[in-house]
């Protein structure tokens, strides 16, 4: 099964018993293949010292096929460079190379004939690095060289002289060898120091350098992402950063349940066959109407994606496609992201859709919970403001009512004067009574005491009524559990224990609360009984009885005392009304402040979000700004306020101009004017409703500013906007499911395609599987697509096997085969590389640019 370029284990420095210094000459070729297979090696280069053992290599190639191991021929040389420790280098050749020709030329030009080896001895043989490397490349091979801290390394050429540094750099830039290191720390050293200095990169490899297969081991595995061919190996020269890894585990591994393994097509006359997918980038190419987009839409629609229209013809053929995932399951309904043709452009063109995406990103990335808290605050505070505004207007009605009652009861100063006058008259009349002055004083004191105690009894009765109600009411908030979502706790221990402990605490507290209130009831009742007893005691005093008899016998005094009692009651009512008026005003003013604070908190919290919430990633910045909706506020007020007259219009103008800068004082002024009825409203509107609408409305909104590489989204070209939308959709998503993209280049300009889209896809394919339809060669070649799917529609000049309407083949970029003009079917007539060059405009140029990037030519 062909999935294009896959990560596999390669060993590019390996010896056999044909090397003069091999440790165990009893080793057989079959032993070599068996043990390499056990170690999951897919490609091995035979690099014996100073020899290409053609017979052995051909036998190993034959045996390797049985174990799916590709054997590349090679040879290790010892150079004249390096001083006391000569530099070793290797030539590796294609698996299809004519070894007789290659070995004959190497023997002749590098002085490696049997006679010369016998005369000098193996350990004294040296070959010119430059001459031999030129010959290797001329013969179609690649050069590798020992590097880093590995023995016989190129670092044997010291850097103590500038001329030596320049010579070493010249060797690397001329022959572009693969650098074989011996330690993992050498990799980072080259990437961080050497490559920046020489201003180009080379592939770094680590190999076994094995001299005894029975002791086969490697310090780390060498992973190469390529077809298991010499042509595949060459790709690491063009992509030295992305096609080679030295590590224990397989690179770029993804969750097996989030990678499509294969697609099976099975519908007579329409399509048939299997397409095996790569976990990274799969590109679908073909001419017009060859089934590229149809295949992509079929994958999306099969898993229920709504972006495929219901009337799309492909829905008639969904029974002819099945999709298997890497976990071995073909279950439908798994998540797939599908971006249809022009999808990004359509979103970029629609500001509402763009804002919706940005809004969702902001919500997802609001790690501090500011936005969530803000939205929850808006919902909660709106209801509370509405209730408080209603209460304020009720209080204002109470104030008007109490003020009216006060005016009806008369002026307090007048009542006090009248009461003093009556008391003076009563005193004059009492002079002629049977009571002595001392008795009269005591009698008056007793009367006052009884009056106060009766007042205390009334207060006790009132409290007892309230306490009896409190006793049966829980102090716990009934909705506490629901409000704090106990049932959302997911950890079993938390969910069970907190619920149980809360219920236990509630029962305990309610019982304790009932006991506390009962104690107050008993204490109050006992105190009330004592007060009643005190009154009876006073009334039994002789002086009190004598005073009552004297009082009842004097009709004029009795009338005056009656008036005194009446005026005292009136004064008590006035004092109570004044106290109540003061209390209501205090509550009203406090509630007004709460309303204003709550209303102003809309802006305050929003400003806090603007100052703290900013998201940046890979050149893309999302910031939050505060917008005052002055026009909306103006329309609201103009539709409700009676604006006849210059003074009213001036009031509205001042309110609108001042609100944003000083919304607190403006809000207080507006609310007071409403409940004091200083503002005239249009017919049909009531002050209470207008106040509730005004103060529950947030006259501000959070708006998002989107920039990429310093350019504001609104100022970008349509192509760049579409690319930014793609980044928004993918960079800020936590999804790991496959991405299906249909011809993204249609939404982008050329500069964005090469400089932005290609680099972006190369990064993103390491994180998620991508299946992408394209007609642009740069997207396929420059993005280094691991798997290229070529689509074809049956036609007179483009026949398919069995006359199928649509047919597909797939493979790696490096799969190459010259066009066979006699081939019966178009897809099998040439290699993947050749199809790309034929189908995609600029395909051949794209390959050339890729291969010339590091100075190579095919």
From TrEMBL:
<keyword id="KW-0175">Coiled coil</keyword>
<dbReference type="InterPro" id="IPR054787">
    <property type="entry name" value="TrlF_ATPase"/>
</dbReference>
<dbReference type="InterPro" id="IPR027417">
    <property type="entry name" value="P-loop_NTPase"/>
</dbReference>
<protein>
    <submittedName>
        <fullName>DNA repair protein</fullName>
    </submittedName>
</protein>
<feature type="coiled-coil region">
    <location>
        <begin position="443"/>
        <end position="470"/>
    </location>
</feature>
<dbReference type="InterPro" id="IPR016195">
    <property type="entry name" value="Pol/histidinol_Pase-like"/>
</dbReference>
């Amino acid at each position: 099964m062909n999935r294009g370029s896959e990560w596999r284990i390669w060993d590019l420095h390996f010896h056999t018993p044909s090397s003069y210094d091999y440790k165990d000459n009893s080793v057989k070729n079959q032993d070599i293949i068996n043990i390499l297979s056990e170690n999951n090696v897919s490609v091995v280069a035979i690099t014996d010292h100073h020899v290409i053992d053609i017979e052995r290599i051909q036998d190993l190639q034959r045996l390797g096929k049985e174990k799916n191991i590709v054997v590349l021929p090679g040879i290790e040389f010892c150079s004249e460079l390096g001083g006391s420790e000569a530099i070793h280098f290797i030539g590796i050749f294609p698996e299809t190379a004519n070894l007789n020709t290659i070995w004959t030329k190497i023997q002749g030009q590098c002085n490696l004939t049997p006679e010369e080896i016998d005369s000098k001895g193996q350990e004294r043989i040296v070959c010119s690095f430059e001459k031999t490397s030129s010959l290797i490349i001329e013969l179609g091979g690649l050069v590798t060289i020992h590097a880093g801290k590995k023995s016989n390394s190129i670092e044997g050429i010291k850097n103590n002289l500038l001329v030596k540094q320049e010579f070493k750099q010249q060797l690397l830039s001329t022959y572009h060898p693969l650098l074989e290191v011996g330690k993992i720390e050498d990799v980072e050293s080259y990437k961080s120091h050497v490559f920046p200095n020489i201003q180009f990169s080379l592939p770094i490899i680590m190999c076994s350098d094995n001299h005894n297969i029975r002791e086969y081991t490697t310090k780390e595995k060498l992973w190469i992402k390529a077809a298991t061919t010499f042509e595949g190996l060459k790709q690491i020269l063009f992509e030295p950063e992305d096609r080679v890894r030295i590590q224990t585990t397989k690179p770029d591994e993804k969750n097996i349940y989030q990678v499509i393994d294969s697609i099976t097509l099975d519908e007579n006359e329409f399509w048939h066959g299997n397409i095996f997918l790569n976990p990274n980038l799969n590109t679908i190419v073909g001419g017009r109407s060859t089934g590229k987009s149809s295949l992509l839409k079929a994958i999306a629609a099969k898993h229920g994606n709504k972006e495929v229209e219901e009337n799309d013809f492909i829905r008639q053929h969904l029974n002819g496609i099945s999709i298997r995932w890497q976990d071995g399951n073909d279950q439908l309904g798994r998540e797939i992201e599908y971006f249809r043709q022009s999808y990004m452009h359509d979103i970029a063109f629609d500001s509402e859709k763009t804002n919706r995406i940005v809004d969702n990103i902001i919500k997802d990335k609001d790690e501090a919970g500011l936005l969530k808290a803000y939205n929850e605050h808006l919902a909660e505070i709106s209801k509370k403001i509405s209730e408080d505004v209603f209460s304020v207007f009720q209080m204002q009605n109470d104030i008007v009512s109490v003020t009216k009652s006060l005016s009806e009861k008369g002026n307090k100063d007048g009542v006090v004067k009248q009461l003093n006058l009556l008391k003076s008259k009563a005193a004059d009349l009492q002079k002629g009574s049977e009571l002595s002055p001392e008795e009269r004083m005591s009698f008056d004191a007793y009367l006052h005491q009884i009056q106060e105690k009766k007042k205390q009894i009334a207060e006790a009765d009132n409290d007892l009524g309230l306490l009896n109600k409190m006793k049966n009411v829980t102090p716990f908030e009934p909705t506490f559990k629901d409000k704090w979502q106990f049932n959302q706790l997911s950890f079993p221990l938390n969910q069970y224990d907190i619920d149980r402990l809360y219920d236990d605490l509630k029962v305990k507290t309610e019982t304790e609360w009932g006991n506390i209130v009962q104690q107050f009831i008993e204490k109050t009742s006992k105190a009330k009984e004592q007060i009643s007893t005190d009154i009876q005691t006073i009334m039994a005093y002789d002086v009190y009885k004598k005073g009552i008899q004297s009082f009842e016998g004097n009709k004029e005094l009795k009338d005056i005392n009656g008036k005194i009692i009446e005026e005292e009651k009136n004064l008590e009512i006035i004092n109570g009304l004044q106290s109540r008026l003061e209390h209501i005003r205090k509550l009203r003013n406090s509630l007004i402040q709460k309303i204003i604070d709550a209303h102003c908190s809309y802006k305050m919290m929003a400003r806090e979000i603007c100052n703290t919430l900013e998201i940046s990633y890979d050149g893309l910045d999302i910031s939050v700004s505060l917008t005052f909706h002055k026009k909306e506020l103006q329309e609201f007020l103009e539709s409700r306020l009676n604006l006849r007259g210059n003074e009213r219009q001036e009031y509205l103008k001042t309110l609108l101009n001042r609100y944003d800068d000083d919304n607190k004082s403006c809000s207080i002024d507006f609310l007071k004017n409403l409940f004091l009825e200083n503002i005239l409203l249009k017919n049909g509107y009531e002050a209470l409703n207008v106040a509730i609408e005004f103060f529950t409305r947030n006259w501000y909104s959070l708006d998002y500013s989107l920039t990429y590489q310093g350019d504001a989204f609104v100022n970008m070209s349509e192509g760049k906007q579409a690319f930014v939308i793609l980044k928004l959709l993918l960079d800020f998503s936590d999804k790991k499911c496959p991405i299906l993209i249909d011809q993204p280049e249609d939404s982008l300009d050329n500069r964005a395609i090469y400089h932005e889209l290609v680099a972006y896809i190369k990064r993103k394919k390491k994180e998620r599987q991508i299946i992408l339809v394209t007609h642009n060669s740069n997207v396929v070649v420059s993005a280094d697509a691991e798997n290229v799917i070529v689509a074809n529609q049956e036609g007179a000049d483009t026949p398919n096997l069995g006359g199928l309407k649509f047919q597909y083949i797939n493979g790696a970029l490096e799969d190459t085969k010259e066009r066979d003009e006699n081939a019966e079917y178009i897809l099998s007539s040439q290699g993947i590389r050749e199809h790309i060059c034929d189908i995609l405009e600029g395909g051949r140029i794209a390959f050339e640019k890729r291969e010339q990037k590091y100075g190579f030519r095919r």
